[in-house]
Amino acid sequence: MQSFTRLLSVALLAVSANAAATTFVPPASRGVPGASSVVVPEVTTDAQSIVDTVGAVDQKAGVAADALPNLPVADTAVTAVDGQVVVNGTAVPDVSRRGSNFKRTVAGYEQVFAGTGSRSSDRDGSIEGTAYLTYTVVNNATYNVDDCLNFCNRVNGCVFVNLYYEFNNALLDFVFSEHSNLKCAAYGDIHSAAEKTNRGGQQLIPPPSGLSYIQQSSGWAAETLADPNAPDGYELVFGPTNGANNAPGYMGFAFLDKYDVNACAALCNTRGSDRAGGACQYFNIWRALVNGVPTTYTCSFYYLVADASTAVNYGQGDLKVTYSRGYKRTSFAVDGGFESYTCDDFCFAASSNTWVGTSPAGGSLDASVFHYTPYARTGSSVALLGSASGVDNLSGTLSPKAPLKTVAGKSYTVTFFANTLYAGPDAEASASVDVVWNGKTVRTIQLGYQDWTFYETTVVATGNDKVALHGGSAPAWVFIDDIYVFGL
Q1: What is the pTM of this model?
Q2: Tell me, what's the pLDDT at 101?
């Protein structure tokens, strides 16, 4: 016969087990999730910081007196980041040269300004402006405009040239093989006579020779400009307009030394993620004119995709916004927010039109898709790992219905948000998720009990790859939202 103490212990254990079993109303029964404290902040563009930095940076350049001709165009450089000026600039890494700057539609040019005469007393100046690319020396037997324009045709991104004579420069007269003093400087932006600020005045040949000086400095611009090609992994949202975005999801900005959409994209791809908002998904590039003069090229970055409706910042005072374009990052995982799955209020299923939930043998709804706003991070739909009805403790697998349209050899980042607040800290302590790439687990994340948290994992494609998230084990349920696969 069992003792009273033994019977009491058995009874308490039975009561405790029954309480544990009924504590959790499973998600399929419309249980109440743990209260989330994560709110995606409505951080908008810091236009004032951008304007202040415009006044602190000098991006104007021209042909130095001792510069070698025919040098390759330098990589696009960052001149400021989030209000901090970058001394001497930093080259943007891994930028594809795919027609990223302003470009001509045809080889036609028009004269923007003329130069002075050629009398001994005439003096002029050469351009010191933004987006300087390179220069050449053309035959000075005549004022050789055609050769200069042909040079512009050969330089990627050239839309403007400044043609001028430079006198009393020994390198031009005696050292360089051309033995010509007629310089042709190429630029990636169009400039005006007001920017002819290089007046010479250097002692480049020992006395009694005079100081260097410039004559007949003219400017020639492409008659029409074409839209740059969208960067790899991006698509054009709007533009060009004369308004920059003032939009939520703002992450910061950078200045470039030329208008280069590929450089903006590279910076967006490599910008650190925002803890609340995730990875950079959108950038707005625009040119600042100050008193009519090209001054800076801004890339503003966002973790939320904006559009033309928020492109309402037209400038301040003497600063005017021009050539504003917005580009959004393309996700290779279609409908990563599950918003195509919808109903009036509350519903769930093992799969949607774009995603498939798979349960192991003996499992039931161990991966599923819900439409229920209280469960979602953004929007109204979300995915769940772990038995939706709570009838088993098996782990499920969530994957897109179709393989990703990835390219072999390229790197990609798999990003998503996970939440494990549903069943409380004790039940959710063991929650985890695996990132699976082509059937192999490339990362295991021990989630524990946590609010919406951002994760990213870098993978290398073999082409038409398959991605999946595996995990959850009721009552250690894992909600997944906002899955993206971006190219790097």
Answers
A1: 0.89
A2: 60
* Per-residue pLDDT reduced to its tens digit, 365-388: 999 999 999 999 999 999 999 999
User: Could you write out the three-class secondary structure of the chain?
Assistant: CCCHHHHHHHHHHHHHHHHHHHHCCCHHHCCCCCCCCCCCCCCECCHHHHHHHHCCCCCCECCCCCCCCCCCCCCCEEEEECCEEEEEEEECCCCCCCCCCCEECCCCEEEEECCCCCCCCCCECECCECCEEEEEEECCCCCCHHHHHHHHHHCCCCCEEEEEEEECCHHHHHHCCCCCCEEEEEECCCCCHHHCCECCCCCCCCCCCCCCEEEEEEEEEECCEECCCCCCCEEEEEEEECCECCCECEEEEEEECCCCHHHHHHHHHHCCCECCCECCCEEEEEEEEECCEEEEEEEEEECCCCCHHHCCECEECCEEEEEEEEEEECCCCCCCCCCCCCCCCCEEECECCCEEEECCCCCCCCEEEEECHHHCCCCCEEEEECCCCCCCCCCEEEEECCCCCCCCCCEEEEEEEEECCCCCCCCCCCCEEEEEECCEEEEEEECCCCCCEEEEEEEECCCCCCEEEEECECCECEEEEEEEEEEC
Question: Quick one: pLDDT at residue 4?
Answer: 30
| Structure tokens given for 479 | 């909600």
How far apart CA 385 and CA 121 sit, in angstroms, is 82
Counting as low any pLDDT under 70, the low residues of the chain are: 1-22, 37-41, 89, 91, 93-107
How far lies 216's CA from each of 47, 118, 433, in Å? Answer: 40, 7, 69
